[in-house]
């Protein structure tokens, strides 16, 4: 149900209800997918926000602090710093892309880049959260789990769906290759041999 699939069988639509040119539905659908990808890209930080405690504070609570008051696990500390920097850079880029989309040009194929980057960030943030919490981040209901611990498990599960929502990561890579990088379509190239 989260994918909102709708199937029509033997449907007839009057000509006056035609949207766009005849046989132009795929062009309209691609434009709608670009809008969907923009929304999915922007959700990278929002999904992480379901767990209310920031990662550094959470890590200190679950993993502990060293004598200087830093996260005790040096490797984990570095991965949290890298994640937080990537998230901030992504959020700033998403803001620029949103401003660009508000111009008359609308969303571009760059939404495929943002969608993939956002998917990776959602996944990485969810995995870091559960890693920090350990077994407590895998609870599904009831005691002894806190609201954040329950949210962590659900966020981890839904972060995986984000890799295919709005078009799989592989589809996005093909769009990026063809429309942004100008690389040849491998399917067309293989057919022309």
Description:
With 193 residues, the protein is mainly α. The chain has a single domain, classed as Up-down Bundle (Butyryl-CoA Dehydrogenase, subunit A, domain 3), CATH 1.20.140.10. The chain is 61% helix and 0% strand. The protein has eight helices and no strands. The protein has helices spanning 25-42, 44-48, 55-62, 74-102, 110-133, 147-161, 169-180, 186-191. The chain is elongated, with a radius of gyration of 21 Å. It starts with 24 loop residues before the first helix and ends with a helix.
Feature tags:
193 residues; single chain; 61% helix; mainly alpha
Can you lay out the helices and strands and say which pair or pack?
Blueprint: H1 25-42, H2 44-48, H3 55-62, H4 74-102, H5 110-133, H6 147-161, H7 169-180, H8 186-191
- Class inferred from helices and paired strands: mainly alpha
Helix content: 55-70%
Provide the CATH superfamily: Butyryl-CoA Dehydrogenase, subunit A, domain 3
Measured between the Cα atoms of the first and last residue, the distance is: 42 Å
**Radius of gyration computed on alpha carbons:** 21 Å
pLDDT averaged residue by residue: 83
Report the sheet-strand fraction: under 5%
- Count of extended strands: 0
- As residue ranges, the low-confidence spans are none
Multimerization status: single chain
Order of helices and strands: HHHHHHHH
CATH-defined architecture = Up-down Bundle
CATH level 1 name: Mainly Alpha
Q: Could you please say which CATH topology applies here? A: Butyryl-CoA Dehydrogenase, subunit A, domain 3
Q: Determine the number of helices (DSSP H or I, runs of at least 4 residues).
A: 8
Shape: elongated
Task: Profile the largest sheet.
Answer: none
**Number of self-contained structural domains:** 1
């Amino acid at each position: 149900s989260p994918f909102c699939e709708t199937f029509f069988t033997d449907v007839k639509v009057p000509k006056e209800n035609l949207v766009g040119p005849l046989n132009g539905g795929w062009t309209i659908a691609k434009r709608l997918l670009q809008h969907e990808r923009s929304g999915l890209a922007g959700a990278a930080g929002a999904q992480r926000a379901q767990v209310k405690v920031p990662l550094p504070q959470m890590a200190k609570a679950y993993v502990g602090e060293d004598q200087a008051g830093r996260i005790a696990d040096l490797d984990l500390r570095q991965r949290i710093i890298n994640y937080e920097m990537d998230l901030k850079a992504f959020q700033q880029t998403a803001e620029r892309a949103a401003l660009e989309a508000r111009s008359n040009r609308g969303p571009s194929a760059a939404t495929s880049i943002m969608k993939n980057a956002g998917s990776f960030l959602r996944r990485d943030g969810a995995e870091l959260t559960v890693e920090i919490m350990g077994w407590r981040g895998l609870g599904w209901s009831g005691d002894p789990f806190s609201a954040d611990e329950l949210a962590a498990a659900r966020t981890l599960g839904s972060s995986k769906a984000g890799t295919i929502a709005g078009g799989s990561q592989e589809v996005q890579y093909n769009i990026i290759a063809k429309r942004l990088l100008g690389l040849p379509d491998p399917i067309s190239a293989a057919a022309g041999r």
